[in-house]
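Chain A, query sequence.
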Amino acid sequence: MTDLPTPTEPRRLFTALFPPEDVAKAIDAERQRWPGLPRRIYPVPERLHVTLQFFNRVDAPHERDWLDALSALRFEPFEISLTQADIWHVPSGTIAVLLPERTPELDALHDATSLLARQVGLPAATQGWRPHLTTLRQAQDTVPEPLAQPIRWTVRQVDLIWSDLKSKPPRYHRLGQFPAPNPRKEAKNG
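Chain A, predicted structure.
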């Protein structure tokens, strides 16, 4: 993690699940098969993720509190499986997404991050969450093909990200990583 300046104004923050590099490349290869792929406006592989919580304007005190709260996050590693491609019409335009199977583990992790956010005063909702991985923006002419096979990875950590839209091009800055406890390490300490 790089040292970043203390925020002077609210920042766009989100918690997310990032696939490992080989899985991000598999996702990229999958979307390259789709007819109507735009020449631009798709996330680079290292920015592909499933969002757990997103807040458009988080001030510095709430950011610090959320970082502290997330250090208490506990979950077991689990498998996520992207099984379906879809087109969504959202306020910012048309996007192509990959949808994961809903599992108790994925829902529990979303609920846990919601609870931690609410504990520090952030307005996290627990209803209406639709887990997805955005693969393309401005995808109105894109026709996602069915996935050749599910794309899987093991979730081992949650990241807290600052989405810096003022940077050219926009950048993600990792503010914190919150790994699932290592069972062997926990057993030694217990």
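The radius of gyration is 17 Å. Helices lie at 21-32, 60-70, 104-119, 183-189.
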